[in-house]
């Protein structure tokens, strides 16, 4: 007899755990919606409970206060960005070398821009003006930097380490102004994030590649 067939399923999630996970997800979804529709100043625990369709007691079972909900929402965004950057770091070197500048930007920038476009609450949370405090994600930023640095090392082998560091810093900083404009102009958000940020990044990448090709 094969003993492995008698082993229980590995770490099965109980119905109670599943319900708890679904409730937390509903609460975080409600928080994201209220941040965009009403602003953080109007966010209350009772309002969150109503929006999430749960009792105030259930809300307090999972979160001690409004800040703890915001912290969990921020962590959910950080985890999502981490998954995006992990996929980028897994792309093989030949793909980065052989792709056009347009293709590089589409692979590297669009997944993050699409996430920001569909999660406008994150735009608020990364703004320096966010009242509870700008979302800090140094490890996520480092991983994004690592993807840019890896791509540039492959495409610009003749550039010095100092030059590549400058280029990486510029590529991180270029979209920030448009992020703020998108936050302040919701009607232009999709155009700015999905068209203008990639356009600016592509132009910059092409410019530094021309600079090194001419040397």
From TrEMBL:
Positions of the DNA-binding region: 44-63
Domain of life: Bacteria
SUPFAM superfamilies: Homeodomain-like
Keyword match 4Fe-4S: no
Stored PROSITE patterns: HTH_TETR_2
Gene3D superfamilies (UniProt xref): Tetracycline Repressor, domain 2 (1.10.357.10)
GO molecular function term, any single one: transcription cis-regulatory region binding
One Pfam family of this chain: TetR_C_15
Domain HTH tetR-type: 21-81
Ranges where the record places region Disordered: 1-21
Key words, A-Z: DNA-binding, Transcription, Transcription regulation
The name this protein goes by in its record: Transcriptional regulator, TetR family
Species this chain originates from: Pseudomonas chlororaphis
